[in-house]
Design goal:
Layout lengths: L5 E10 L2 E11 L4 E5 L6 H9 L5 E9 L2 E2 L5 H7 L1 E4 L6 E5 H12 L6 H14 L10 E2 L5 H15 L3 E5 L7 H16 L7 E6 L12 E6 L2 E6 L2 H9 L1 H7 L1 H4 L1
Parallel strand pairs: 3-10, 3-11, 6-9, 9-10
Antiparallel strand pairs: 1-2, 1-4, 4-5, 7-8, 11-12
Helix pairs in contact: 3-5, 5-6
Length: about 260
């Protein structure tokens, strides 16, 4: 029987010869939400890029499997086709490319024989309604002149249309005001309530716990110096809010020395 889940085992990663990840073990089950927290420079984004296949991040040991399929030998596009999605901290603007063309091309890339054009257009407008987004967005150029909130909403639309098995959200709360953050949380909740999104597993990478007010986590993991040093329930985020990361560092000092 295939072992379901996004499973990371003893993952070690270097960047420009410097070891950033020092043996990461983490599992995200279908339909669950895991939060990965840590201060800047702890290796959180390195983990996201290594999992999704960024060429600047060299995996020196370990494995990453998606529902039993080893990902590390696959190109980034094949990892996406296997069911992996990455939401970027700073989504790039693409002048000249409309949102409609982007989402149509992305859907075809991961589901080549999926929906005929008329049904796909219907799906787009269904998702726009669910996410409470203006359909005028479809004719705009990708992230060109978008506010921070609009960029994140567009990523949530891509997430809803692609319907991945596992989604990594890298610092999704970066630069967002409270209203935009709530909109992102509502978008994720709406996707998880839908038939095609309720089995998606999420790894939410964040520095601050505020996004977890809007995206409820089942498990919280703390990363320091390239290692996951503590895991627990959602209450662990409240500990970070109250005491900060240094309190965790002092608590686990022997383990990370």
């Amino acid at each position: 029987m295939t072992e379901k889940g996004l499973r990371i085992r003893d993952l070690r990663v270097t960047v420009d010869g410097n070891e950033i990840l020092r043996g990461i073990d983490l599992s995200v089950e279908p339909g669950s939400v895991h939060a990965l927290m840590g201060p800047n420079g702890s290796g959180k984004s390195t983990l996201a890029f290594a999992i999704t296949g960024h060429p600047s991040y060299k995996v020196t040991s370990g494995s990453v499997t998606l529902d039993g399929e080893e990902l590390l030998g696959l190109s980034p596009d094949k990892r996406a086709k296997a069911g992996l999605f990455l939401s970027f901290q700073y989504p790039a603007a693409i002048p000249g490319v409309s949102v409609a063309n982007l989402v149509r091309t992305a859907r075809r890339a991961v589901r080549a024989d999926d929906l005929p054009p008329a049904q796909f257009r219907k799906l787009i407008y269904e998702k726009l309604e669910v996410l409470d987004m203006d359909d005028a967005l479809m004719s705009r150029y990708v992230n060109d002149g978008f506010s921070g909130g609009e960029k994140k909403r567009l990523e949530m639309l891509q997430l809803a249309l692609l319907g991945p098995k596992y989604a990594i959200l890298d610092e999704t709360d970066s630069g967002l005001d409270v209203d935009a953050l709530r909109a992102v949380g509502d978008s994720i909740a709406a996707m998880r309530a839908s038939d095609d999104g309720k089995h998606t597993g999420f790894l939410v990478i964040t520095h601050y716990p505020r996004i977890l007010q809007y995206v409820k986590a089942d498990r919280v993991h703390i990363m320091l110096d390239g290692r996951i040093v503590k895991s627990g329930g959602p209450e662990l985020a409240n500990v970070i809010e109250r005491d900060g990361y240094e309190a965790i560092r002092d608590e686990v000092a022997d383990a990370i020395s």
